[in-house]
């Protein structure tokens, strides 16, 4: 009995220690990307020895220290992100399957998201989680950085660029699923405006897949100023709380989760005003939260809910909560589609 209790104690304490040091994995991941290790191994075309890898890592003082690099690589192997195999008596390090998403410059690279989420300033609201539980409207982001997230982005171009790159990264991963799995959703649509569409990554995917649709992206002036131009996409500057351009379909990808219920209803009402009098629809790409689900993305969706609470006072919502918002804004029905991704598609009809 004593032995069984000891095992239970060890398991419980080990679980807590894994949570305590949970930050280590994300920050090691960030450092590995900054050191270009995934790209160095990928470009080499095969696993590399520690000495060869060390000689390729950029360093102001020459090659990276072998012992320190070995200890980092040992941990990455333990994380199952890198492989280690002995060839001719010497260890060689390669990329495990998940590490392909750490290679920069291809459509499914997750590097921008990792660099954004692990950014020192963007992590700081998590240190104010306790203070963020108060009844006042001030968010943890405001407590940490002195202003709300939207003002901060407009006044800090470098951080705004990091943020926009992360959003574009997430969009690239999402849009391949959306375009391939929801082809029927775009039938009969002649015009579409992507509200809060950032750099235009999402709507550009739609414009290329469905060239018959007249596509526009609508966002704040400081977002447009830092965004590329695309010949197949019209860019419109404005404030979605005041006006939304008219279109057959209005796309909003991960927009409403930034806002509290009252603001969401206001935005949805503006969407309804922008739709044709005889039809049209709003296409929401959002998390539909189910804490009891065993889906691999359930934990990520729940973390995202805390992220929204801390950074902008928003939330991820259950189907029941989405239903309440949609009907409160004057819409008559909705349809939910599950994608092979973190978010769902909610089609909303007048």
UniProtKB/TrEMBL annotation:
Record PANTHER family: O-METHYLTRANSFERASE
Biological process according to GO: methylation
Record-annotated active site: 257
Organism name: Stephania cephalantha
Entry keyword set: Methyltransferase, S-adenosyl-L-methionine, Transferase
Domain O-methyltransferase C-terminal: 126-332
This protein's name: O-methyltransferase
Start and end residues of each O-methyltransferase dimerisation domain: 17-104
InterPro entries from the UniProt entry: COMT-like, COMT_C, COMT_dimerisation, SAM-dependent_MTases_sf, WH-like_DNA-bd_sf, WH_DNA-bd_sf
GO molecular-function term, one example from the UniProt record: protein dimerization activity
């Amino acid at each position: 009995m004593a032995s069984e209790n000891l095992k239970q104690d060890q398991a419980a304490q080990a679980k807590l220690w894994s949570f305590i040091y949970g930050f280590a994995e994300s920050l090691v991941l960030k450092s590995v990307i900054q050191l270009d290790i995934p790209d160095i191994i990928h470009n080499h075309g095969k696993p590399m020895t520690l000495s060869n890898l060390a000689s390729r890592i950029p360093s102001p003082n020459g090659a990276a220290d072998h012992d320190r690099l070995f200890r980092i690589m040992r941990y990455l192997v333990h994380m199952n992100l890198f492989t280690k195999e002995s060839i001719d008596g010497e260890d060689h390090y390669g990329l495990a399957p998940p590490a392909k998403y750490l290679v920069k410059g291809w459509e499914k690279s997750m590097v921008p998201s990792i660099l954004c989420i692990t950014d020192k300033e963007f992590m700081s609201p998590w240190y104010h989680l306790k203070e963020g539980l108060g009844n006042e409207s001030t968010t943890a982001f405001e407590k940490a950085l002195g202003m709300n997230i939207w003002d901060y982005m407009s006044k800090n171009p470098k951080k705004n660029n990091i943020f926009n790159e992360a959003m574009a990264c997430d969009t690239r991963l999402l849009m391949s699923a959306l375009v391939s799995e929801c082809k029927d959703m775009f039938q009969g649509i002649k015009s579409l405006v992507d509200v809060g569409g950032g750099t235009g990554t999402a709507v550009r995917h739609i414009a290329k897949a469905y060239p018959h649709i007249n596509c526009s992206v609508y966002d704040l002036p400081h977002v447009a100023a830092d965004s590329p131009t695309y010949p197949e996409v019209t860019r419109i500057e404005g404030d979605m709380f005041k006006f939304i351009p008219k279109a057959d379909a209005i796309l909003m990808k991960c927009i409403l989760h930034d806002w509290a219920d009252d603001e969401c209803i206001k935005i949805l009402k503006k969407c309804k005003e922008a739709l044709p009098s005889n039809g049209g629809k709003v296409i929401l790409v959002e998390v539909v939260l189910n804490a009891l689900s065993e889906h691999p993305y359930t934990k990520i969706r729940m973390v995202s809910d805390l992220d929204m609470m801390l950074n902008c006072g928003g939330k991820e919502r259950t189907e029941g909560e989405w239903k309440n918002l949609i009907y409160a804004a004057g819409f008559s029905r909705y349809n939910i589609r599950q994608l092979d991704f973190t978010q769902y598609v909610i089609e909303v009809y007048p």
